Each structure stands twice: as structure tokens, then as C-alpha cells.
Amino acid sequence: MAGDYLRNCWYKAAWATDLDAGHLARTILEERILFFRTQGGIAALQDRCPHRFAPLSVGRIAEGVVTCGYHGLAFASSGQCVNNPYGPITEPMKVRSYPVVERHSAVWIWMGDPELANHDLIPDLSFIDDTPKTARNYVYIPTAANYQLATDNILDLTHVDYLHPDTLGGPITGAKSRVFRRDDLIVVEYVNLDCEAPGIFQRKIPSPATCDYWVEVSWRAPGAMVLTTAAVPHGQPRRREDEVQVLHNMTPETRKTTHYFVCGTRKYRMDDEALSKVSREAVRNAFLTEDKPMLEAQQDNIGDADFWALKPLILSGDAAAIQVRRDLAKLIAAENAAV
Length: 339
Fold this sequence. Notes:
The chain has 339 residues and is α+β, with helices and mostly antiparallel strands. The chain has helices at 126-129, 147-155, 160-163, 273-302, 319-338, and strands at 10-15, 24-28, 31-38, 41-46, 60-62, 65-67, 74-76, 81-83, 100-103, 106-110, 136-143, 176-182, 185-195, 211-220, 224-233, 244-254, 257-266. β6 and β7 (74-76) form a beta hairpin. The two termini are 14 Å apart. The mean pLDDT is 94.
């Protein structure tokens, strides 16, 4: 359903390494798309042969050409047919191609008007590129929940004291929070001074010592969020070098399923691969065993109902998530009106 999504924007389709072993078939905004590397970069084609609608992804890919495994029609990375074993190539013999870019260790796809596909509109995630590979962690979490539910989960961090009590929880309930705009971003910030460090920072600041803790989440449409956090000994100045930055990027697969991409980075002990392994497992455990089951249970409870039609109870911690939902709805409505 085209009108349900913002289309003239860049969506993260995969981590770049997902294509290292070959092609990838993935559904984005309810459209099945085939991704594969070419000599000049990456191609993205509608994964459906126009003849009998067989998935091109089960065919053969060689030298930038996809040959359908059903009747042998072949298509270039542009989507144009380049071989018809049964006769001349006619105008209908083509498949849709999508603008696609590799940047920030990821594959980005433009789902809307290709004439509007400006590379400058890709979210600036240069903090990933600036971090050595030894201090980066990549995670992909397919989640059976709407992408806006997953977005809410990161914007409203009041849940962490309850859903993640042993790892991330502790300092949020007593924190001072505020929501504000920074350019085209919506930002929510939590600050708690002189508190017990959450579990993930206990090795750095073990109790009974206390810490100053802060976390900031910035959102950019349609679903790219950067969470920046740190805990330092109480009274120590706030420094960039103490922070962990984590990308949370939500790409709709369908109305009830989401491609959830996470990339964690840090500015300290950047050559410590053992620490990276511990951090990766902590993130995977938190999201795979705590966030993901809760999000999927929410979606199961909501079913096909409209979120606002259910009249959700609004709490103070919902301010950023509500603002984001309203902003995104306005963007989608404006785009639909312009069609």
C-alpha cells in the first residue's frame, strides 16, 4: 500500500557485508527486491520477472545480468531486457530498477521517484566510518512488529528500567528529560546525576560509587535514530571520548514486520576486540531476548487495528515518540497529496 509509507527518502536495505556471499532478496515497503553487486557498484531490481512473475532471485546472476530461471529472459542492472531466447526484445520486457547507494557500511535504497533520489539526503552516519572496525558491532534483527512501534521503543527509554533491569536499566526513571529539535532532527535527552551506574557500565563504575549518566536519541525521518550515551564518575566533565553511539535504523518490510538494523560504536578502548565481543553479545541479548519479544507481543495484541484508533494512554515519556509519529504522518500526507 503505497500511501502507508514515506517513499521519497532513503531506506537502509542491508548491511554491505550481506552481499559478500552473493545476491540478496529482501522485501522493502511490501515490495520484493533483488540486490546484487555489479562491476560498478550495487543493483536493485524488482524481484519479479514480467513474463510469469517468477522471482528473479532464483535465477542466475553473472556479469551484472540476471537470467530468469523459469524461461530464460535476461535483464541488465538497469532493468532492461538484454536477451529474449524466443524472439525480439519488446518495450514491456523490463523490470523496475531502484536507485541504490553503498554508504556507512550499508546498502541504501530509494523507493520513490528516482528523479528525486539525491545522495545528499542519506542520513549522515559518518560516526560509523570514523570508528575503527575493532570498535564497531553490527546487528540485524528481523522483527514481527510495525516499524513505528520499534521506533517508539527507542524514543521512549522509560521502558529500560523495567524491560532491561540488569543491563540498561536503573537511571532513567529518576532522570531529567527534554524533547527538542535540532535542524531536521527530533531529539530526546535524559540526564541523571549522582546515580548508580546501569549494568552495562558497572565494570567502569562499580557500585557503591555513583555516576553521571546521560543518553540522547536523535530521530530523522523515516526511521534512522542515533542513541548516544555515557556514564562517568560523578562530577567528571561530560566528554565525547566517553560516549557510546548506537545506530537504530527501522525499515518497514510490511505493515507488521520490520528490518531492524543496529550498529554500536564507542570512542574509548577502540582497539579492544574482546570488549567489542562482550558489547555485541550484550546488545544482541537485550534486543533479541527482551525488546524483540515485547515488540512482537505488542503487534500481536494490536493486530490490524490503527494505533490511534485504540486510543493509547499517553504518559510523559511518550513526548518524543508522539512528536515523531505526528511529523512522519504529515510527511506521508504531504507526499501523497503531491502525487
